[in-house]
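Notes continue from the previous slide.

Worked example: a multi-chain complex. Inputs as given:
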Amino acid sequence: MENIVAEISRLKKSFGRNDVLKDINLKIEKGKNLVVCGKSGSGKSVLIKCLVGLIEPDDGKIILFGKNISDLNDDELNLLRKKIGFLFQSAALYDSMTVRENLEFPLRDVKLKSKDEIDTLVLEALKNVGLENAIDKMPSELSGGMRKRVGLARALILKPEIILYDEPTTGLDPITSKEISQLILDVQKKYNTASIIITHDVGCARITANRMIIIKDGASVTEGTFKELSESKDKWVNSFFK
Amino acid sequence: MSIDLKISGEVELVKVNEPSENQYLKRVKDFFEDVTKLTRFTFRFFKEVVKPRYEFNEFFKQSYLIGYKSFPLVAITGFIMGLVLTIQSRPTLVDFGAESWLPAMVAVSIVREIGPVITALIFAGKVGSGIGAELASMKVTEQIDAMEVSGMNPFKYIVVTRVLSATLMLPVLVVAADAIALYGAYIGVNLKGDVNVHLFFLQVFEKLSFSDVFPAIIKTFFFGFAVGLIGCYKGYNSNNGTEGVGKSANAAVVIGSLAVFIIDMIAVQITSLFI
């Protein structure tokens, strides 16, 4: 159990009368990619937002690095968040900042020796996603795929232990989707990070998943490897892979 | 394949443009909920403003954007305000044979009331809507969430800096607007008269006292605080996607302007107790 970096059990969340998450259970092992699949509106994004404390769950337990996040105060939670990278569906780059400033932003509270050290980290993160030439560009000058890459570089800059990807390939063409999926795999191998990848892109799941979970009606219904789930006898599960 | 569409059962016509009793209750409830949230937001501001870390760079950047970038608009408005007020007041004073009082009367009006309030309203329109729309679009595009998950405190970085800048920049803009308005008044006086600049300002400063200037400047800090806080509150708590961005900007201006008038009314009452 030492390898478990995050664990969610019996998670529930409602918005008004709409029960979005009813019974979510999952575990993430160190250095492994977990893909979460489900229909649009099944609460996948709500799930990872609960995991980082952006949304407060109604019930259930979320254990991150051995700590129950509901027991943490704001400062403790912020400290824990430094170990987590988050790639948003829209990349969520800060519009008023250049790519360099976007990447420097998470480093503001980190005690570094010099400006050179910060520059090295920024360049390294951008090299990882192949965008070192875009360092002085504004987000509005970047394409959708480039924005996702910069978002990933920003998520990587603090060398997190877990990275959460919210629909990393949505809205991208098949070639760029494949590149982003490959990038996710490269990051996992290079930094030995654990990842939760929220997607309904089967191609992305095939490339990145060590394990997969399928969510239906707010509950995790089945779990397994990509191969196991794609060969499932359950028609509903199987329909994801056709 | 053909599809038959049928309406079965009886159709009841309901007047949709008249809110039902429940809707009135909901509106009242929403109003009090909003007031409670704004109060909590204000308390959070005072809690965060004293807590390190202090975002000086962002504060100076916002002060430049809120203060310096608003100056041309405020200057033009101030000039026109002084000029028009003088031109409009002259006939009445001429009727009473008190034309020589024109510089003093215009100066007291501008410094005590018209300068601070008009500048604050212009400020609410430009800065309040800008802050409301900017924060709302940051919220919609998950930029505020992105700051939060990177372990930063977005409230401190975004809200505290903007509210502080608005609070400190509006008084500076009001002083500048007052000065330019007085220059506009000087030109207004000379359109139909012949008063040299020395005499004009001598008359102005003879009639202006500490009790005219000091309360007028103090209340502008409250105007700036209200405009900044309401803009941030509306933007920070925006929802409903891009539609919410427009609504937040609009609400920031409307409520911010209303707050300026309410604060002005209270300030005048308090000032009249002492002066």
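Summary box: The interface with chain B takes residues 49, 52, 54, 74, 78-79, 81-82, 84, 86, 88-90, 92-95, 105-106, 108-109, 154, 158 of chain A (CB under 8 Å). The mean pLDDT of chain A is 88.
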